[in-house]
Specification:
heterodimer, A: 0% strand, globular, B: alpha/beta
């Protein structure tokens, strides 16, 4: 749960969206208004916050909030 | 080809003496300095600890947090000033007219603060921590680019990066673009935002900056005997230039008419002007010729007047050479005495100030002029603004690289 809460904070802050909108099924691009550069920066913020590295080919598959939660739970 | 007439129909300012035209103009006419100690960051270890910061500006009032984080201050100032100019003009940008509206905005340095920040990130955390927004934040044409994006202009989208002459070159090029038909309107001017350690270290290494750290309000003293360098300023000035018939058709209010534009190069030195002021003389002459005017037609000059020992003496020499016996009659002031030197933004705010001087028939003063320096013997409007007849006014800007730009505006007469 801690991971999820921290992640939601990061996403809401990076994309300037209300936390209530950051639901598991939300797509970063379609629902949260991100463009491709926002996504790169968001992945960087996740790497920094969780002290992990997300390879580019993995990052490409992180499309929704749930994808991000799953990935971080898997590797951290 | 017949050149079309071009007028100023909107203005916007974010300056060290106030955000917004009204606040800035009131401060300039009252002779208030916008210079103080650096507050943006801890500058206590610097040789130069004074600057002309924009003080009453809060980016949250103008941008979403995500936008603001990705916009350097020089870009924010350009967009905010352009929005004020648009509102002031009463013009509405529509899908139909957008292709005929340009964004032509000068900038001397661009995103130096973000470059400084991410060089440190690169060295401490490595290249994977460089934001994808780094390049779009740093490039100096993003002022013009973001004005186009935020306002929806689709005509010429250009940035001039001729150091301290950039703002005036931009205004001149916008004037040309409209007069020759590339577009019917253009947001133009200049902006800068480099209150960061690299800027102070770099300019100080050139001995270009005033070190009067204990008396910031007295540090910018153009033409004064005790001047010792310029003060870095920040902000932006944007005008909406418009083709005359277009402006008349929509009943626009008109501040002034663009009359002439001149350019030249010194072919001399990377930073210093030639002793005889040759480049400045050529440039003022070119602008007068473009306007079809002679020395007797200009009443006010908004001088480059940086408060450096070299500029003010040589600019005075150049004015006297160009204007001959008419020079003694001119009112010549340096508003940098109050705003500091906005580098690529200087020509932008000074073009706005020149338009206001014509509209209000009022020459803003040169403050801190107590004892004129050797050879500085013109009427610099010391201390107090002066109500006077201004038929036409000239604005001078000279930049590193030996690049010069001069613009002339005149009172609008139908």
């Amino acid at each position: 749960m801690a991971v999820e809460e921290k992640l939601i904070d990061i996403i809401a802050d990076q994309l300037s969206v209300d936390k209530a909108k950051v639901v598991p099924g939300a797509s970063f691009i379609d629902d949260l208004g991100a463009d491709s550069l926002d996504l790169v920066e968001l992945i960087m913020a996740m790497e920094e916050a969780f002290d992990i590295e997300i390879a580019d080919e993995v990052a490409e598959k992180i499309v929704t909030v749930q994808d991000a939660i799953d990935h971080i739970n898997k590797i951290s | 080809m017949v050149k079309r007439r071009v007028v100023v129909t909107g203005i916007g300012l974010v300056s060290p003496v106030g955000t917004g035209v009204e606040r800035s103009w009131e401060a300039l006419c009252a002779g208030r300095s916008g210079i103080g100690h650096i507050t943006r960051y801890d500058a206590s270890g610097q040789a130069v600890r004074i600057a002309a910061e924009v003080k009453d500006y809060n980016s949250d009032e103008h941008f979403e947090p995500k936008q603001a984080r990705h916009l350097e201050l020089f870009v924010q100032y350009a967009v905010v000033a352009a929005r004020e100019a648009l509102k002031d003009s009463g013009f509405q940008i529509t899908p139909e007219n957008a292709p005929r509206v340009g964004s032509i905005i000068g900038c001397g340095m661009g995103g130096l603060p973000v470059i400084e920040k991410y060089v440190q990130v690169l060295h401490t955390k490595g290249e994977r921590r460089i934001t994808p927004f780094f390049i779009p934040m740093a490039i100096p044409n993003m002022g013009a680019g973001q004005v186009s994006i935020f306002l929806g202009t689709k005509g010429p989208n250009l940035s001039l990066t001729t150091a301290c002459a950039a703002g005036t070159h931009a205004v001149g090029e916008a004037f040309r673009a409209i007069s020759t038909g590339d577009c019917d309107l253009a947001f133009t001017g200049g902006s800068e935002g480099v209150i960061c350690p690299m800027a102070f270290a770099g300019f100080h290494a050139m001995k270009a900056l005033s070190t009067r750290n204990d008396e910031p309000e007295k540090a910018s003293r153009p033409f004064d005997r005790d001047r010792d360098g310029f003060i870095i300023g920040e902000g932006g000035g944007v005008l909406l230039l418009e083709e005359l018939e277009h402006a008349k058709a929509r009943g626009a209010k008109i501040y002034a008419e663009m009359a002439g534009y001149g350019m030249s190069g010194d072919a001399y030195h990377i930073a210093a002007p030639p002793e005889d002021g040759g480049g400045a003389i050529l440039c003022m002459g070119n602008a007068l010729a473009d306007a079809g005017m002679g020395p007797g037609d200009i009443d006010y000059i908004n001088a480059h007047g940086t408060s450096t020992p070299l500029n003010d003496e040589i600019e005075t020499r150049a004015i006297k050479k160009v204007f001959g016996e008419q020079a003694a009659r001119l009112a010549v002031s340096s508003t940098k005495s109050m705003t500091g030197h906005l580098l690529g933004g200087a020509g932008g705010i000074e073009a706005v100030i020149t338009a206001l001087a014509l509209k209000h028939q009022m020459a803003p003063p040169t403050i801190n002029l107590e004892q004129p320096g050797p050879e500085c013997d013109l009427d610099y409007v010391p201390g107090q603004a002066r109500a006077m007849e201004i038929r036409a006014a000239m604005s001078n800007s000279f930049g590193f690289g030996g690049t010069n730009a001069v613009m002339i505006m005149k009172r609008y007469e139908p």
